[in-house]
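User: I'm writing a tutorial on reading structure tokens. Could you give me a worked example: one chain, its sequence, then its tokens, then a sentence or two explaining what the tokens reveal?
Assistant: Sure. Here is the example chain.
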Amino acid sequence: MDNSKVTKNLTSSQLEVLRDKATEVPFSGEHLYRDSNGSYSCAACGASLFSSHTKFDAHCGWPSFYDVASTDAVRLLDDHELGMSRIEVVCSNCGGHLGHVFDDALDQPTGLRYCINSVSLDFSPDKQT
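And here are its predicted structure tokens:
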């Protein structure tokens, strides 16, 4: 992670996930059941990552999105840890670990499931007019 781009104070849980690539306990994250309209940003650097309009309930225990806020919001990296082959999702701005992406969301427009740790995200509700 490029620590020069990390500007916020992070909790120990956020540090474990964003820097050490840990995974939060399933069904424990504060954003899992959030259904408010708004945007999700990186908890470390504030970069915009996901919109609530692409969030869906994948019944997997972590917030899931079928697309990113912009094509350059995240980087996808090969992950061969834990004896399996997966695609890791990291923040393009600061390199913080966010989660993994899977191609098993066949009922979603992109077919993708960005499975993201709640502690790696901040939420900003849409402004009411």
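What the tokens reveal: The longest strand covers residues 74-79. Strands lie at 38-42, 48-51, 55-56, 64-65, 74-79, 86-91, 97-102, 113-116, 121-125.
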